[in-house]
Amino acid sequence: MDTLTDIAVQKAEQSRLPEVDLDNPGFGKVFTDHMLEMEYKNGEWKQPVIKPYGPIQITPALSTLHYGQSVFEGTKAYYIDGKTVNLFRPEKNYERMANSCERLCIPKIDRETFLEGIRKLVKLDHKWVPEKDGNSLYIRPFACAWDTQVAAKVSDTYRFYIILSPVGSYYDAPVRLITSQNYVRAVEGGFGEAKTAGNYAASFYPARKAQQMGFSQVLWLDAFDHEYVEEVGTMNIFFLIDDVLITPPLGGTILPGVTRDSVLKLARSWDMDVEERKIGMTEVMEAARSGKLQEVFGAGTAAVISPVKEIRHHGELITIHEDGRGPVGQKLYDTIYGIQRGKLEDRFNWTHSIEVA
Ligand code: COI
């Protein structure tokens, strides 16, 4: 496919920014003045257009509503100063979206269109990038089936959108997790590694049960033994046991997180002992009982580095951190967020600056 970097812009007549409190935006509740839209029909993606953010017209027979043939991404833009905004590793989001598209039979979006679409949209709406420490502009690209037909089949038409939302932290308090022996998030051969709506929809019922029991989320275990740790659904998971940083390996059932990858690269660059390997709950609980479980935290674009306060497994509750992150989680958060905000040296060339003025 040809590179489609020519993006037409229709500007909103009036900005809604004066109505928004950028210091307290919540998460994913308010959206900026513009969005990017691109249509796929007759076997090709058409020219993208940036237009005023607003409702889109669909029919009740829209195939996405019935069969969930849809994929999405999450990345962020960070305030540097009045002239510059940073993106963080957006090419990794492109790679993951391309893989998710492949798995969901959605025609691949051109790389430059995806990256240039983000850059152009963020530049146009840069005044929405929050300056407050901890806040950022969440970028949500997504693609979905657009056929008007209730047959369960691969769609012939699609839409791709990018929308932007100023956000604060995803978790306001340290996370409390519970494992499940009855429900699983993904199974080998399924689509656990794709960022697709169905993975989230399937997790809501068990997550609601967990919340009714006072927990924030389910800590997902493998589908066969209900023993090996997978991820949290909203973030990947890390354990610090006896000074070794351990995270489950990517194997098709776990989302390949950009923050996960950044944590691994940073920890290795600090000469920490790092292991990507299967980790069972028996090991986690034993480490907690013997005092060797030093830290547990989740890593994700929305979650950044979120400390896990407690885990309940088979009726036994372990408490890891009473409040806040442990020293390693805190160092990772400070380093990743410091690089994102342009306050620390970017040794890995992770950030892409956008000149906005
Ligand atoms: C992200 O971290 O970007 C996600 O998509 C997670 C979602 C729960 C907001």
TrEMBL record:
Catalysed reactions, as listed in the record: L-leucine + 2-oxoglutarate = 4-methyl-2-oxopentanoate + L-glutamate; L-isoleucine + 2-oxoglutarate = (S)-3-methyl-2-oxopentanoate + L-glutamate; L-valine + 2-oxoglutarate = 3-methyl-2-oxobutanoate + L-glutamate
One annotated GO biological process: isoleucine biosynthetic process
Its EC number(s): 2.6.1.42
Residue numbers of N6-(pyridoxal phosphate)lysine PTMs: 195
Pfam families: Aminotran_4
GO molecular function annotations of the record: branched-chain-amino-acid transaminase activity
CDD domains, alphabetized: BCAT_beta_family (cd01557)
Co-factor(s): pyridoxal 5'-phosphate
Keywords noted in UniProt: Amino-acid biosynthesis, Aminotransferase, Branched-chain amino acid biosynthesis, Pyridoxal phosphate, Transferase
Pathway the protein contributes to: Amino-acid biosynthesis; L-leucine biosynthesis; L-leucine from 3-methyl-2-oxobutanoate: step 4/4; Amino-acid biosynthesis; L-valine biosynthesis; L-valine from pyruvate: step 4/4; Amino-acid biosynthesis; L-isoleucine biosynthesis; L-isoleucine from 2-oxobutanoate: step 4/4
Xref: Gene3D superfamilies: 3.30.470.10, D-amino Acid Aminotransferase, subunit A, domain 2
Family: Belongs to the class-IV pyridoxal-phosphate-dependent aminotransferase family.
Function: Acts on leucine, isoleucine and valine.
Protein name per its UniProtKB record: Branched-chain-amino-acid aminotransferase
Organism from which the protein derives: Halalkalibaculum roseum
